[in-house]
């Protein structure tokens, strides 16, 4: 007898979706952003849009299909192992908040597909599985990587004209971020700025000097990860010295570098930050947002400049998260040449709207899947 809730098939499609020309950084600059080693390449040597991602289609026996999207830098052996472990299971036997898979880099994408399939099969939205929406739209920001001082003012003015109220920049000590923010104050005075050096302000002395100069301009909403995470004492001293909020990024995308958010415990105990950027799957984002809410700490959802399936999941997570009130990093459609969705997410700056429909509320564009496909695998019950 056929079980309609059995996972009958999983298809994994590897895609490479490039960015629109000129949207990542100024033409005279080339500073790749992938900050981990990858396939023998050093950290900070590969641009994110050159790297493949994997789209998952998890099909139940009754024809319901749940969608998932993996973070970049997947490992096919892990994809094989996770898909083989899931296919053939009765979805009713799976505890959604503890999907029975190892917490490897690819876990969150498989969890996403599992939740989507379950919600669709029950006529629910993913946000309903998270406890229901607190809001029907979530604040989002514009984004750019490294820019020249000459470019930055007009760029941010164009974001403001589109309706954005906040912009996030990747930066390092090589960038004159004080001049950036001065140009932005002149050309787009209503815009707030998030600066994210990924720890590359390097030392307390540099970070403090930059922070004090930025405070004089007055348009910086926060400094995200200004110095390396391990420098807890320096974080506390920087927070005391600079009148700009500090944000800490907790990313569970690479579990080999973190312990499901234990770094957040140290942050709460030491009082090193004012707000929290969380990159995590559906269950872990909810867990960490609950913890931040207990400390009255605002959060937002991080990203890897993703495609539409992952960004739909982020919107569901944000809509159900009480502390998630800062503009989230949901801007992939503005950067990538396609989101792989049949109908794009509704983004009307400065908000992204909760999708309509069951599950994640989005559908995969089959033509785009094929166009950007670089590899494909199918998994069936043994």
First-residue to last-residue Cα separation: 17 Å
CATH topology of the largest domain: TIM Barrel
Order of helices and strands: EEEHHHEEHEHEHEHEHEHEHHEEHE
If you compute it from the alpha carbons, what radius of gyration comes out, rounded to the nearest whole angstrom?
21 Å
Number of helices: 12
Q: Helicity level, as a percent range?
A: 25-40%
What proportion of the residues form beta strands (DSSP E)? 15-25%
Structure characterization notes:
This protein has 382 residues and is an alpha/beta fold. The protein has two domains: 7-123 and 364-375, 2-Layer Sandwich (Enolase-like, domain 1), CATH 3.30.390; 137-353, Enolase-like C-terminal domain (TIM Barrel, Alpha-Beta Barrel). The protein has twelve helices and 14 strands. A seven-stranded parallel β-sheet has the order 5-6-7-8-9-10-11. α5 packs parallel to α6 (204-217) and α6 (204-217) runs parallel beside α7. It starts with 6 loop residues before the first strand and ends with a strand.
